[in-house]
Each structure stands twice: as C-alpha cells, then as structure tokens.
Amino acid sequence: MAKAMLGQWEEAANDLHVASKLDFDEEIGSILKKVEPNVHKIREHHKKYERLRKERHLRNAEREKKRQVEALEREALSALKAGQVMGIHSTGELDTKLNAASRASRLAVLYFTATWCGPCRVISPLFTSLAEKYPKVAFLKADIDEARDVAGRWNISSVPTFFFIRKGKEIDQVVGADKNGLERKLQQHAAA
C-alpha cells in the first residue's frame, strides 16, 4: 500500500497480487482496483514507446539501406564513363564494368577487336560515335591479343564481335563488321 501511495504502481500491483493470493482481504481488493488502472496506463505507455522506438529504428535502417544503395549506384555510374568507350584488359576489369552496368540498370556492349583486323579498323570509329550517341549504354572494348583471358572466356572465334549484355546476361550479338546490324541491335536493346 505504501508503494501505491508513492506512485510505484507496478510494484504495488505485484505486491498486492501476491498478498491477495496469500490472504485475500477486502481492503487489498479495493486498493488493487485503484492501482490496476494506473498500472494498465503505464503498461500501455511502455508498449507505445517501445513500438515508436522500433518504428524509428526501422526507419533509420531503411534510410541507411537507401543511402547505401544510392552510394553503390553513384559508384557504378562513376565506373561507367558516359559517352566513352572503355578499354578492357582483364577479366577482373570486365567483371567490374559489367557489375557496374548491372547495378546502374544499363545495357553493356562488349566489342572484341584486334589491331591486325581490317574490318575492326573500319567499324571502330562507328563504335566510338555510337558511344557518344548513346551515353546511357556502357561501351566496352577488348583487344583479343591484349586480353586473351577475356577472349577465351567469351569463346571468340572471329573479330569484330559485339555482345549485348543486360544484367550480366548476354541478350544478343553481332558478328562481323555489319554497321547497320550493329546500329539496329543497339537501337532495339537500348530502348528496352
């Protein structure tokens, strides 16, 4: 009863419940009826603030996750040079660029060439101009003599060869110096 007078409602309710189990008394019952509404209010108050604390924690976690996703997207965009052809010299470099294109939801065009290839020299300026025309597409260029591991991984049997890649998967290809075919496929897949 002293705890109830001091405003320690929860402790008072616990003590009064124990006392009523041991020896029920009318006086204990009447005090318990006065104490229980206050205990109920306190418990509701605790539940409310626990719920608010959890919601705030979830909002902060969601905000942090969004911030991390935005940072990854910025990093991916910085790895992709808009309007430029990026040289590929190793499989690690290719994987980095393709992952960046996937995170940025961009189409990637992988062009295999060789310095000794005549048709490659003819189509190279077109590939560069397409990179300027389509800045939201990642244009990657690999010389099969410099990047033998990349060429082997993609089973290159002739040059020039163009692979169209979206989300890390090959969706189309053009083999040979077909300028119109290259532009048509690029228009088709860049719009998708």
Automatic annotation (TrEMBL):
UniProt signal peptide: none
Cited InterPro entries: Thioredoxin-like_sf, Thioredoxin_CS, Thioredoxin_domain, TPR-like_helical_dom_sf
GO molecular function: Hsp70 protein binding; oxidoreductase activity, acting on a sulfur group of donors
Domain spans labelled Thioredoxin: 66-191
CDD domains: TRX_family
Residues forming coiled coils: 55-82
Gene3D superfamilies xref list: Glutaredoxin, Tetratricopeptide repeat domain
Annotated keywords: Coiled coil, Repeat, TPR repeat
GO cellular component assignments: histone deacetylase complex
GO aspect biological process, one term: response to stress
Name of the protein: Thioredoxin domain-containing protein
Species this protein is from: Linum tenue
